[in-house]
Amino acid sequence: MSIQFIGMIGHRLNTETIAASGPVFDKDYIVQSAQAHEAAGFDRVLVGYWSDQPDGFLVTALAGLSTAKLNFLLAHRPGFVAPTLAARKLASLDHLLDGRLALHVISGGSDPEQRKDGDWLDHDQRYTRSAEFLKVLRQVWSSDQPFDHQGTHYQAQQAFSAIKPVQGKLPIYFGGSSPAALQVAGEHADVYALWGESLAQTRETIERVRAEAAKHGREVQFSVSFRPIIADTEEAAWAKAEAILQRAQERISSAGAVLPAKNESVGAQRLRDIAAQGAVVDKRLWTGIAKLVGGGHNSTALVGTPEQVADALLEYYDLGVTTFLVRGFDPIVDATDYGRELLPLTRAKVAARQAQVA
């Protein structure tokens, strides 16, 4: 199995350790970040979704027109755009990017966050809606004739799109750790995405998703997210991790920020559970930031030299993970660093593993 590396770009510089500054839609930063990831050798970059931030479609369009080979993964929450319209918007964007687009469906793990956009469905209802959204989306892309749809969350009469994705259909990435989420992933996901958990947790989740996919005669690929912290020596890498934690604590303290708890998110709870096991799990999995932010997003790190972190990634590869979403705490600087050593090293180790198996 070959591997892919996904980075992440934002609409402006803003991390746990760096306070946001400049325009909220920073065109120069978007272009610079996309081009840095392309130069570093990333296969794809994720463009995230927030209920109070700029539109990801436009961030992706700008970044895509600023690059030539880099692929994109656009996060999207079902519920606010009809699937028939979303299908046309996504197909149009895929044409603009010459077939470099994939879709990351996020059903939503926080009731307060969803309600900012007027969504009052509960946790499990949101996943039911996501399943129906994906069913309609794919039917729009595949249908040569108009069709009717009468569902629980969506209705359409004579739905049709003259424009289809360049790829025929977009790859679907899907996340969520609850039983409701795993059922949707088994039926619809091409790639199931999970946050950086322990090896034991990851193995368990992969087995559960595979079991759900088998019910539909399908196979699913897997992606795991980490925040690698690398340095020339192991000692320097751990010192760097502690410095990152201190800066993040200082930023939260100085801003007087109260981080919202994602009480409905099973994935966030799983990160809180692993953080409760200690600051370091499985030798290199560092939970310092995950504990600080209450598991609110992909916040666990692998710490060590590039060689050591590459070896740690291979342990997940051996479980069946073929995609790694890696992003740093200083996004452009870290993406460049990853491209210099971590990405080539990991790819070489995977290639050697494949040759050995062959």
General description of the model:
46% of the residues lie in helices and 17% in strands. The protein has helices at residues 27-40, 56-65, 83-96, 111-115, 123-142, 179-188, 199-214, 234-255, 266-276, 288-292, 306-317, 331-357, and strands spanning 4-9, 44-47, 71-76, 101-105, 147-150, 155-159, 172-175, 191-195, 221-226, 229-230, 280-281, 285-286, 301-304, 321-326. The protein is α/β, with parallel strands linked by helices and 358 residues long. The protein has an 8-stranded parallel beta barrel with strand order 1-2-3-4-7-8-9-14, surrounded by 7 helices. It has a 4-stranded mixed sheet with strand order 10-13-12-11, sandwiched between helices. It has a two-stranded antiparallel sheet with strand order 5-6. The longest helix has 27 residues, at 331-357. 42% of the residues are buried.
Keywords:
4-stranded mixed beta sheet; 46% helix; 12 helices; 8-stranded parallel β-barrel; globular; alpha/beta; 358 residues
- The ordered string of helix (H) and strand (E) elements is EHEHEHEHHEEEHEHEEHHEEHEHEH
Q: What structural class do helix, strand and pairing data support?
A: alpha/beta
Taking Cα atoms only, what radius of gyration do you get, to the nearest Å?
Answer: 20 Å
Largest sheet: 8 strands, parallel, barrel
Strand order of the largest sheet: 1-2-3-4-7-8-9-14
- Determine the number of helices (DSSP H or I, runs of at least 4 residues): 12
How much strand content do the residues show? Answer: 15-25%
Counting DSSP E segments of at least 2 residues, the number of strands comes to 14
Low-confidence stretches: none
Query: What would the principal axes of the Cα set say about the shape?
Result: globular
Helix content: 40-55%
* Mean pLDDT, all residues: 94
Distance between the first and last residues' Cα: 11 Å
